[in-house]
Amino acid sequence: MSWSTAGIWAIIVTLGIGTFLMRFSFLGAMGGRRLPDWLQRHLRYTPVAVLPALVAPAVVWPPATGGDPDPARLAAAIVTVAVGWWRKSVLAAIGAGAVTLYTLLFLLG
Amino acid sequence: MPASTRKSAYLTGLRQGAPFLLILVPFALLFGVVATEAGFSLLEVMGFSMVVLAGAAQFSAVQLMAENAHTLVVIATALAVNMRMAMYSASLTPYLGAAPLWQRALVAYGLFDQTYAVAHARFEARPEMTVPERIAFFAGAVTPMLPAWYGMTLVGAVAGRSIPPEFALDFALPITFLAMVAPALRTPAHVAAAGTSVALALVFAGLPFNLGLMIAAVAAMVVGAEIERRMGAR
To answer: Predominant location of this chain (chain B) (predicted)?
Structure first.
């Protein structure tokens, strides 16, 4: 790595300010005004629209296996979604996913 | 607004936020280890966790810097990863927009995937909550998470040794995010949005600067909203 201390801090501070501005954007500018219905309707889907896209490539092509699809990780992802949907519980889903992952990694070694 | 309902909202937030420590702790630990091994000083590693406060973006930035990518590429990629924060901000505005500016600024600093998921679920389920109660709930949810994020980054950075790959910690993030999404798949519109999100993220995975993520997310929101509109009710 060939970064000067100043170069590293420039990146940290820029990312900090940029990220804060994105977090503050609507909360800061809109105040108590009501968002239009069409926008609210879209925003209701923010979590289910962003989070799956954030992780889908890592589920199908895990960096840890050099990008090769891995049965243990695929199965763990499917079990996590199934249990989370069925039990409506984040913790139950994480637990089931972790157990599936470690069991299959152990069995398939 | 009686202080007692604010206090109980704070305690509820504390209770509902606490389970997410199971996710934050290994994630922060891992960031401390990875960034230290990439060659960053203790102060710089802590700077990332305290100033940027966004796991996925921190990992992206450190990864690219370790590969000696151009400064602009590092910044553009990490900010693209964080663009979802603007969506979170907009999504919480109907619930928190009437709060004083300084409170909204503090909420903004503490707004990340886990606090957003906890707060949005609670606010949606309890429309009768007042704005001060919502702020108190959010403060409660953040209370255990921030010290854990800073502290475990520090522990990881000081320990400075690799966690053995057998622990498969690379998969802690995907499992966490999927576990947060699954309980929200309660209507055909939500399922269609999630399906669109996965499909397009895979199709566009090769695009630079995480553009695939942004395309998939925006398209999925449009699909969800359009299905909701056509079905006439949520």
So the answer is: membrane
> DSSP assignment, residue B48?
I
For Cα atoms A74, B183, B180, give the angle at the middle one, nearest 5 degrees: 65
Q: In whole angstroms, give the CA distance from residue B37 to residue B19.
A: 29
- Residue to mutate among A2, A24, A27, with most B CBs inside 10 A, is A27
- CB count within 10 Å of CB B197 equals 31
Q: What is the C-alpha to C-alpha distance for residues B151 and B29, in angstroms, rounded to an integer?
A: 9
Euclidean distance between CA atoms B228 and A42, whole angstroms: 9
**Cα dihedral across residues B77, B78, B83, B86: positive or negative:** negative
Residue B210's region, left for phi above 0, alpha for psi from -120 to 50, else beta, is: left
In total, chain A counts a number of residues equal to 109
d(CA B23, CA B21): 5
The alpha-carbon radius of gyration of chain A (Å, integer) is: 20
Distance between CA atoms of residues B74 and B68, nearest Å: 9
Token digits of residue A60: 């199908």
pTM of the model: 0.72
Q: pLDDT tens-digit profile of B174-198?
A: 887 788 789 889 899 999 999 999 9
Q: With the C-alpha atoms ordered A26, A52, B155, B14, is the resulting torsion angle positive or negative? A: positive
Q: Where are chain B's structural domains?
A: 3-161, 185-234
As a three-state string, the secondary structure of A25-51 is HHHHHHCCCCCCHHHHHHHCCHHHHHH
Per-residue tokens: A58: 């890592």
- Establish whether this prediction's ipTM goes over 0.90: no
A-B contacts at Cβ under 8 angstroms: 284
